[in-house]
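Throughout our pipeline, every protein is held as a single compact record rather than as scattered files. Such a record has a labelled line for the sequence and another for the backbone structure tokens. This encoding replaces a full spatial description with a residue-level series of whole-number codes. For reference, a complete record is included directly beneath this paragraph.
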Amino acid sequence: MSRYYTEEQAQRALQLGSSTLFEASGLNCAADPAIKAVWRGMGVAAPAYPLACSPGDNLALHLALEKVPEGSVLVVTTDNFIAGYWGEVLTVAAQAAGVKGLIIDGGVRDIAAVQKRGFPLYSRGIAVRGTIKASYKSVGEPVSFTGISVAAGDLVVADDDGIVVIPAQEVARVLEASEQREAKEQAMMQKLEAGSTTVDLMSLAHWRTQ
């Protein structure tokens, strides 16, 4: 998994959810919200394996599947070029290599087939148009993904709310802060169920109209 965090910690991060992790982290770690789960109910928490495709070219993905550590999630920048970089063939290859999911700022296709295989996809869009295989920018090296830095081994957590990428060395701290936030929110919800209001609990009474 990582020398900085365990599989159990990664799964706990997924249970806490991307929103809680982001709010508790104090980091610039949220991906562009335009990159969404292709279908709802997906979730993945795993070490990042970053790569950079040339626009309209998916060669980097093919090369990555020969190198990616088992248990990783691919985080792919394409300079926001929408095309069908990924489909059923690469999904089969990825699952055989132990890859847990794909997060891409470009496009994907073969959606029904990939969904049947249960492979988590997060993308900027769905595109019929395919890609060429002529060049690539990087495989396994750090990238800037929609304005956030991603290095191999950073913890990626993606769910229906969105995507966060937490630097590996920050995972333990962020998890502790997230647990504290979760506990505070659970206590608040118990008080709401007992009849308190959010205005009172959040000290917003001074905003009440007179």
Observations:
- The longest helix spans residues 171-193.
